[in-house]
Amino acid sequence: MPTIQITGGRIIDPSQDIDQIGDVWISGGRIVPSDGGHDHADVVVDARGKIVCPGLIDVHVHLREPGQEEDETIATGAAAALAGGVTSVACMPNTLPPIDTQAAAEFVVLQGRRAKQANVFPVGCVSKGRKGEELAGLGQLVAGGAVAFTDDGAPVSNAGLMRRALEYSKMFDLVIMQHCQVMELTVGGVMNEGFESMRLGLGGMPAAAEDIMVARDIRLAEITGGRLHIQHISTARAVELVREGKRRGIRVTAEACPHHFTLTDEKLRSFDSNFKMNPPLRTADDVAAVIEGLKDGTIEILCTDHAPHAREKKMRELDQAPFGIVGLETLLPMTVTYLIEPGHLTWSEAIRKLTINAANLINLKNKGSLRPGADADVTVIDPSTTWTIQANQFRSKSWNTPYDGWEVRGRAHTVIVHGEVRHTLGGIVQESAASA
Amino acid sequence: MLGLEDLSREEILAVLDTAESFAEVSRRDRKKVPALLGRIVFNLFFENSTRTRTSFSLAAKRLSADVQDFSASVSSISKGETFIDTAKNIEAMGCDVMVVRHPTPGAPHLLSQHVSSSIINAGDGAHEHPTQGLLDLMTIRQAKGKIEGLTVALLGDISHSRVARSNIWGLLKLGAKVILCGPPTLVPRSMERLGCEVAYRLEDVLPRCDVINVLRIQFERQQGGLFPSVGEYSQFYMMTQDRVRLAKPDLLILAPGPINRGVELTPEVADGKHSAILDQVTNGLAVRMAVLYLLSGKMDARPAGE
Ligand SMILES: [Zn+2]
């Protein structure tokens, strides 16, 4: 493994409250002290004018393998992650078959290692077969490498099962991630229920369907003492409920995705299925509440809900097209352009939500930080570059993005995983002449 | 021609005026004009509607176009071919106009991004049914001599009705007051934001109405629990002689059909002196001729030799 010197960058590491110009040294796949007596590096990364931070971690992606490899594979998804500056992903278990056994979790781990792109961590199912009836073998999933549990794609509807999951998972101190949706309230829905759905004649999914499940599960987390994580929060009331739950000391966390802080349901006027996602795009008030939740720390994690779908599937009529958009390659520029540049979050606050907070959520002890001894996953960001998103340039197998053609700021420049440069836009990595 | 929301007041009036002149053609002995001679009109119906399809076919034939029906049940759609592929194939056969009926809102809009034929929306889910909206406007204008200043109530399942949406856009643009009346599960309050009044009690609404448009109850909704029973619906919202007496003496009653006698209207009301149901059918033909004719101007803009 090469010794790498990342030189002259603005180092932002919220895990140590660092924001300063300096060098980061890597050796043997780990971060080493910058005053550790190194006199040469095999690779020098010139990071002047760039931001150097712990590798970004996305706790909510769908990689579609096994079962829907036409949409994405673990290798293509992990490559897309790298292109977006993301060094670790937690992938959802709603594959075919679902990740509900030790062997299935091990398969994901193995495919991730083979791909040698971003690190891939499986999230296991809460229920056997994702059927929402009986608890999956949570302990066996942990043995297979699972870092959390969810039936995402669908909620754990049964309150009794959710209660048991929150209780039982305490023995591993792992989090239950919940896709909050009361299914009885969203039958036939393809978008947010409200003025826009009424005008377009499209089936609606009311905000209350999310709010009610969030309220229920926070109460269940309270009585069990389990760890609850609210996935892809999208409504003003849900943000308020999480805020209130935290104030009362309940172990609840929440994540938000870029589409829920940049887009509203008015976009559906185009009838473009790239605006069809679940939870759906909401109203301007909800977007403002999500941003407010990000600002005051109610929402401590930024992630993508990267949901690739092959083009022929998204080209269907709006009610037949699947829910979801890709996000790995647009997470960083959306965060820079719509949270940092307007002044909602500082760089440090945004990076915290993309690194150490995400690592803590899924119990990754050696990631999300640049402290000596941590895994050498590093993202070098060019904060000022302006570029145009082009879906046909994505490394993901699927191009279903609502941001095609958008002009944005900020881009991953060099991405190091496990002490190796695995992605770069080129030009700044040099083999050191002084290499011994 | 995707919806009345997209049309200006002037464009709507232009279609209505053109339709009036085609209504005259229909009263002639020889009911044919050569406006669309050599053109091919395809009816792409992904949902059954004999009445609308027949009306479009007849309208196209009176303009001397060749008409071809395509219905999804006998097509490759059921074999997994996509809707867009189907339309592209039809276009490759030399189609000039596609008349599209589809159960999904926005399906004709999606198609318009993938084919270059002119597209007429013949009903897209619960979104719009612009030619129905236009024929309702035409019928009202014939009977009342104007639309501006009239009070028009739409009665029934507004929330799932494409006819309602096209009517709302058209009526508001032409200066009518629009009241939406039905049970709260079928008439959401958010519809007030369109500029309409929302009301739940028909008796309160009727005395103010110049026109009432009685929408069809779709029985499949009943299983969704949006109202307790057809019987209860009729008790509160069926247009009966007694209810007609609450209204102005010159009340005009429209119904887009097919009507359920004894559910939305009693037979006496459906066939009574206030009813314009058959005029609507006649006007439907004229409106569709007008729309096809006006779109043919766009077709003539194509390069020569095509
Ligand atoms: Zn989800």
Structure commentary:
- The complex is a heterodimer of chains A (436) and B (306).
- Chain A contains 13 helices and 19 strands.
- Chain A is an alpha/beta fold and 436 residues long.
- In chain A, strands 1, 2, 3, 4, 5, 16, 17, 18 and 19 form a 9-stranded mixed beta sheet that branches. In chain A, strands 9-10-13-14-15 form a 5-stranded parallel beta sheet.
- The model of chain A has no long low-confidence stretch (mean pLDDT 96).
- Chain B is of the alpha/beta class and 306 residues long.
- Helices cover 41% and strands 15% of the residues of chain B.
- Chain B has helices at residues 9-26, 50-62, 83-92, 107-112, 130-144, 162-173, 202-205, 219-223, 230-237, 241-246, 267-270, 277-300; strands at residues 40-45, 66-71, 97-102, 118-124, 151-155, 177-181, 197-199, 211-214, 252-254.
- Chain B has a 5-stranded parallel beta sheet with strand order 7-6-5-8-9. A 4-stranded parallel beta sheet of chain B has the order 2-1-3-4.
- In chain B, helix 2 links the parallel strand 1 and strand 2.
- The two termini of chain B are 23 Å apart.
- The model of chain B is unreliable at 302-306 (pLDDT under 50).
- Bound molecules: zinc ion.
- Zinc ion (ZN) binds next to loops of chain A.
Blueprint (SSEs and pairs):
The complex is a heterodimer of chains A (436) and B (306).
Chain A: E1 4-13, E2 18-27, E3 30-32, E4 43-46, E5 51-54, E6 56-61, H1 74-83, E7 86-91, H2 102-115, E8 119-122, H3 138-143, E9 149-150, H4 159-168, E10 176-178, E11 191-192, H5 195-200, E12 204-205, H6 207-224, E13 228-230, H7 236-247, E14 252-256, H8 258-262, H9 284-296, E15 301-302, H10 311-314, H11 331-340, H12 347-354, H13 356-361, E16 378-388, E17 407-417, E18 420-424, E19 429-431
Parallel strand pairs in A: 1-4, 1-5, 6-7, 7-8, 9-10, 10-13, 11-12, 13-14, 14-15
Antiparallel strand pairs in A: 1-2, 2-3, 4-19, 5-16, 16-17, 17-18
Chain B: H1 9-26, E1 40-45, H2 50-62, E2 66-71, H3 83-92, E3 97-102, H4 107-112, E4 118-124, H5 130-144, E5 151-155, H6 162-173, E6 177-181, E7 197-199, H7 202-205, E8 211-214, H8 219-223, H9 230-237, H10 241-246, E9 252-254, H11 267-270, H12 277-300
Parallel strand pairs in B: 1-2, 1-3, 3-4, 5-6, 5-8, 6-7, 8-9
Helix pairs in contact in B: 1-5, 1-12, 2-12, 5-6, 5-12
Residues 152-153, 179, 231-232, 305 of chain A line the site of zinc ion.
